[in-house]
Amino acid sequence: MEQAVHEATNTQTLKGIFRTLTSEHRDLVRLLKRLCSTSETEVRSLLFPTLRVQLIGHERGEMEVLYPALRSRGLTYGMAEQHDDSARKLEVLVGCLSGYSFDHPGWGEAAESLLAVFEQHVGEEETEFFALAQEAIGAERAEELDEQYEACKLRLEQSEQSERAV
Asked: Buried b / exposed e across 50-89, counting CB within 10 Å, b at 16+?
């Protein structure tokens, strides 16, 4: 209950890109938990491609739009560096899962590892980074970055679809 109150308050006070990212975090955690809770290969084969596209798009969008804006400010520079390290770990874990067949005995454990790393990543962003970052760049800039982030994600998703079509 306390966590839900914190999440609701956090989402309400955050603006623009920070509000969007927090909402996406919730969706991605739910999807990851659903993946971790099943051993059915058919369910994994349906959910994992969606997770992969959304998670990689989310992280790359942050790296292309949000964190360069934070890197330009002394107070938030370290956040960007820490985020990039964490995002690389997530991409490696997604790559490991992509390399397994959905019935591989290690698939569930690898999915659990991805969930744990992602939840830690989300915790850092939402409790340590976002409020301070929003204060540093302002609500208006957060709204501008939100528009850029959405455009970036759309471009990344279209690129992913084009690659799969080939």
From this structure: ebbbbbbbbbbbbbebbbebbbeeeebeebbebbeebbeb
CB atoms within 10 A of CB 105: 9
Q: Label each residue of 73-123 as H, E or C.
A: CHHHHHHHHHHHHHHHHHHHHHHHHHHCCCCCCCHHHHHHHHHHHHHHHHH
Phi, psi (rounded to 5 degrees) for 38: -120, 150
If phi over 0 gives left and psi between -120 and 50 gives alpha, with beta otherwise, what is residue 28?
alpha
Torsion-angle region of residue 101: left (phi > 0), alpha (psi -120 to 50) or beta? beta
Whether pLDDT at 101 is above 50: yes
- How crowded is residue 92: how many other Cβ atoms within 10 Å of its Cβ? 12
Measured CA to CA in angstroms, residue 44 lies from 34, 76, 83, 111, 112 at distances of 9, 38, 28, 10, 13
Q: What is the pLDDT of residues 45-78, one digit of tens each?
A: 999 999 999 999 999 999 999 999 888 877 777 8
Model pTM? 0.86
Q: How far apart are the C-alpha atoms of 130 and 139, rounded to whole Å?
A: 11
